[in-house]
Amino acid sequence: MTEASVSGGCLCGQVRFTVQGPLREVLLCHCSQCRKMSGHFWAASSAPRERVDIYQDTGLRWFQSSKEAKRGFCSACGSSLFWSHTAKTTLSFAAGALDGPTGLNTGAHIFFDDASDYYRVHPDEDTIGGSSY
To answer: Which end is more exposed in the chain, N or C (fewer Cβ atoms within 10 Å of the end residue's Cβ)?
Structure first.
């Protein structure tokens, strides 16, 4: 967990944000929605919503991906940036969208039962089963 303030944004710069720590460790989500949204598994940290300031949102669009959650992305460059669950007080954001260095560590692979067959995870990394199907 990092206590620092970090900034991030999309590839083209139409979406920019800052996050005031503490930030959650990075979780690597293998659920079917994250894989389809990102093209691989999705690496994300999170923080309380009030600590996330989206100060440039020209390209930001939201997609209601399920009854409980929506995903934020840049409509100009396609960068996947945010995941928001209606029952949570936190906002998840793509670890890869953060300007480095972040000081974050990987926590675990989640929804690992949905992982694809074309990659391998190092045996020292924690996995948590479960499926979104």
So the answer is: C
For residue 30 the two structure tokens come to 């293998």
Pull the structure tokens for residue 37. Answer: 């949204």
* % pLDDT > 90, the chain: 75
pLDDT in tens, 26-79: 999 998 899 999 999 999 999 999 999 999 999 999 999 999 999 999 999 999
Answer whether CATH 2.170.150.70 is correct for domain 5-114.
yes
- The strand pairing partners of 113, in sequence order, are none
Q: What is 20-87 written as a DSSP string? A: ESPBPPEEEE-SHHHHHHHSS-EEEEEEEGGGEEEEEETTEEEEE-SSSEEEEEETTT--EEEEEETT
Strand order in the sheet with 15-20: 5-9, 15-20, 52-57
Closest by Cα among 1, 44, 6 to 22? 1
